[in-house]
Amino acid sequence: MKGKAAARLLVRAIELRSGLTPSSSSRHFSSGSRSFFLDKLARPVPHQISRCGSSRFSSSAAAHVVNSQNSPTDHENHKNDDQQFSNYWGIITKKTLREDGTPWPWNCFKPSDSYVSDTSIDVKKHHIPDAVVDKVALKTVKFLRALSDLFFQERHGCHAVLLETVAAVPGMVGGMLLHCKSLRKFEHSGGWIKALLEEAENERMHLMTFMEVFQPKWYERALVLAVQGVFFNGYFALYLIFPRLAHRFVGYLEEEAVASYTEFLAALDKGSMPNTPAPAIAIDYWRLPSDATLRDVVFVVRADEAHHRDVNHFAADAHLQGKELKDSPAPIGYH
Ligand SMILES: [Fe+2]
Ligand SMILES: [Fe+2]
Hints:
single chain, oxidoreductase, binds fe (ii) ion, 335 residues, globular, Ferritin
């Protein structure tokens, strides 16, 4: 009963928040579906059922353990409850298998998002600044690099984690703004929305990978909060006003990322950092061999950064030539 009462309060709160009166809400929730909604809200969530389950997402197997003392019918009912909860919106997530038939364990990416990194890319390439805009971008990046080196010094792992939290922002902001521009102007983006969002996702996967190996300290997490607040808004404004400078800035930022990962590799080769086994997420994402190490991961991440460098310098060059990005072919799939 308490659950039903709480559910009614919650439904009422949703109605008030969305500006719906109880009578108007009936246009959205028929009496049948409303009682179904109430019934669902009142039902205990699976992780409350399975007190012994350590998994965040309780499975029907966990429900099985908890209900093993009950009758077979009770067990079946609870099992069905669990399945109904999982498929609440009527969406059944398809199980994905690896090529060898083992279950694909990642929800954050699918096999179609994984790839073999192109490590043949030139990691020493540098865009020589020839315009004032380029020089401003380079000087700003060099200044930020000096600050981060001062802060992290030889802690390459934490440096990589923090770098990725920043590096994943520009692609998302650029992609979002191009998306809005496409809507506003009733025009195609030339594939650039997807290309920039791909870059952001690739950077986020770098972060997810390094998080498996290095755990940032509380003050480093606090720094990420502060930096993201400033950087997201700053980059948003910059991209709106001066997209050429924004892309050039990211191009130089990626050059520094390549340099940072080169130093990381040197530290691993010197033995000043342990070359631990590669995290499972990295093996699946970059299709690395099962005995891959941290060095192999850093090697492919560095190649990705070199690709981001080229994509952003290319975008800045397109702007420099007075073109719109939509008129230049977007490097989709070019990680
Ligand atoms: Fe990255
Ligand atoms: Fe990058």
